[in-house]
Write a structure and sequence with these properties.
Low-confidence stretches of chain A: 627-640
Number of domains of chain B: 2
Mean pLDDT of chain B: 83
Shape of chain B: elongated
CATH topology of the largest domain in chain B: Multidrug efflux transporter AcrB transmembrane fold
Order of helices and strands of chain B: HEHEHEEHEEHHEHHHHH
Oligomer: heterodimer
Helix content of chain A: 40-55%
Radius of gyration of chain A: 35 Å
CATH superfamily of the largest domain in chain A: Multidrug efflux transporter AcrB transmembrane domain
CATH class of the largest domain in chain A: Mainly Alpha
Largest sheet of chain B: 5 strands, antiparallel
Number of strands of chain A: 22
Low-confidence stretches of chain B: 313-328
Chain lengths: 640, 328
Amino acid sequence: MNRYPLWKYLIMIVAVVIGLFYTLPNIFPQVPAVQVSTNKTAVRLDAALLDRVEKTLKSAGIPTTTAGLDPDNGVHIRFVKGDTENQAKAKEVLIKELNGGVADGTGNYIVALTSESTTPRWMQELNAKPMALGLDLRGGVHFLMQVDMKGALDRAADRNAADIRTLLREKKIAYGGVDKAGAIINVKFSDAAERQKAELAISDSNKDLLLKEDGAGQDLRLLVTLKDEAKKKLADSAIEQNQKVLGNRINALGLTEPIIQRQGADRIVIQVPGASDPARLKDVIGRTGTLELRMVDADGQKNTAALQAAQAGNVPFGTELMNDRDGGQILVKKQYVITGERINGAEPAFDGQSNQPIVRVTTDGQGARVLRDVTSQNIGNRMAIVLIEKGKPEVITAPVIQGELGSNFQISGRMTTRETSDIALLIRSGSIAAPMEIIEERTVGPSLGAENIDRGFHSVLWGYLVLATFICIYYMVMGLISTLALSVNLLLLIAVLSMLQATLTLPGIAAIALTLGMAIDANVLINERIREELRAGAKAQEAISAGFEHAWRTILDSNITTLIAGLALFVFGTGPVKGFAVVHCLGILTSMFSAVFFSRGVVNLVYGSRKKLEKVSIGTVWRPPSVSTNAAVTASVDAK
Amino acid sequence: MEFFRFSRDIPFMKYAVYFNVISLLTFLIAVGALATKGLHYGIDFTGGTVAELRYAQPADMTQARAAIESLKTGEAVVQHFGTPQDVLVRLPLVPGVTNAQMSDNLFKAVCGTRTLADSKNACGEGAERIELKRVEFVGPQVGRELFENGALALLLVVAGIMIYLAVRFEWRFAVSAIIANLHDIIIILGLFAIFGWEFNLPVLAGVLAILGYSVNESVVIADRVRENFHKMRKASVDHVIDNAITSTISRTIITHGSTQIMVLSMLFFGGETLHYFALALTIGILFGIYSSVLVMAPLVRWLGTSRENLVHATEKPKDALEAEKILP
């Protein structure tokens, strides 16, 4: 009656072996490491580089444990566990050797601090890797960015309006003007035939535009908007572009393993573990600016009347009043000459004559063409370099155009080296497609992370020990089996989490502790039921069998209700709550296996083979002294 | 060892009225506290900035308070956090100031004349050192969403559990169980309101987890009630319910005790982050025992459950498994 067929025992063994195998990587320690990689295609990551790195460290007298080369992501050098001092030293030495001391991402190599698992390679190849630790456990920065889609649509409309103007001019179609209200472009005509021609030309040149005729008589209009599917495409590509730009920026700072994910329709999550300089990171991520080069219309010297009118609140059409860095105000055209998208590269440098920090900029072919056209006609005029952040334009500098500009030029102004390197970084990493804003930020220092690991570990450890002791004393051998099942539950839960490469957070550890506390419920139910059967006078073997069978339905019911709550948390939870829910749900599932299937197997193994089992070691089975017990009543009622 | 030795069924049903009056009173007190004092929400819900600072020696609170006052943010909170060296600063949302500026300003203000380290997350040397251990900023739109999602999650849990219980047992059990457990939730929230404990995201997770967990008790008792209806054919409904509670109470208390052991461990070792989470669970577990035994069972009785509701009159199934199939 209490026997398992061989295959069931085999399942138990296989489950435990797999559980052990995938739990093991979490026990191998994490060691500090330095990774040397590159984001330039021309730079090769080869054995020569490895050799160079090793020699450099050796001559600097920095002790390392291993050094290896991974063709995909570069050279890895590991240090003794906890030796972050030498790790930091090594980074410094390597930046000096490989990049000539430049640490802002413009050098050929990216030297980054990481931590690596010492799990053997063959295990890693079988996907046995440790669980990733969440930011609250290892320190780091978390940002939630809200992408302003309206802004993206607005900018697309700007681009399209400019295109339509050029197109109509090229095709020599007479139009009264192009203006823009939000995301709607309004093209004016005085002649219906011309409008007809324009409609054909526009829909030919851009299939994403939706055209609508409007107005009557002399006041004819063409309303141009984006088609719905084009809007969706635009939104998707805007998010993608923003993600890419953020990735470039973070990589350029020499931080590895950033997680940059889309969340929902218009949000991006950024997580950078172990960031040693969160303030700098925040600065660079938070700079969601786009760069535009625009002509200056009026300033203190030229066209002063217009400037004064604007200062009095009467800003001329097509221009904007802005503060320049000297504290004065200038009037800048709304129409840009080129945007950051036309810029190929930018690097911080020093001006040869004045020795002031500057930014050297390189543009692409089309950008250079436009610049050449505009600047050749505007020598002596000023051009403003405008950084637009959160819709607020800021003039970085507005230099006087000294000569015809081409594909190379430099931006100077009163900037510090840090500013020039940040601006260069912003320009280089590309222009974001839609403005973004940080709506949530969590920064956890590394010391708090280590404390949290300790707290979580001790919560689980002490709770588990006290619980196990109590259950073993209260239910004797059956309690021992229940504890064993609980250990298997913990093992399987950690194995499943490692297999899924889930990220463990402090709420996740809390969920492990709570789930263990709840999982013992199944074994308590079974043991109490067996006691009850024994109390009612059942034979030992029958009591075990009946106990497991009766308890099973209750266990299933109660686990399903717990699972409903877990799923609701998973569906509606974000961040820490989701982490909690994942562990909680998985823990319930593994507990069904361990508490029912596995513990039954062990019980069968211990008791099942004995034909004449007199006694089950399940602690005291107290029998009520009088005859009028429930069990007796039940039995006698049934007998009738 | 055996803690629970009952030679006869405890007549719970006889005293049901008293228990329900007690429940109603505690429930009303909790609702009253929620209505008058309200919950003390964490920044997850309200939005704002929270920073955790560690001083090298016991922090000078008056100086820290003055520094934060100078930021002129309105309702700022500066308080000790665990040890005298740890200080928690809470700032409300300030329109027009981005979070990046806010956390920088905060730390600069606290540091005062101390020199800021390059990384901007520590300042001062030796005994003067202050470390910025944690900064969190939550924007207004996030908090609003969390409210909505929290409410939706609660609704989903309630609806899911009710449907499951109604299918598995019958509607009287579903209604009673959900009332009994919502009563627990209200009491948890009420206590949080009375003592001004911080209601944050982990607490919300804990409350919902407890909702799923306490329903277990109701399920266990309902299961036993149904089984007893099969076995004890001559017994009255009260007797059946009393017997069901008495024979499962040992299990109820042992299980809750076991879960409580883990929760206590979190309360003692889990630090500040898990403190309120563990506290919510503790209240939930204690009231969970009480409510499923003394609230849910009488409710089932008064809603008029009977043998016929759970056991089909014409059928004489040998065990509950067969009875299941003929339930609506």
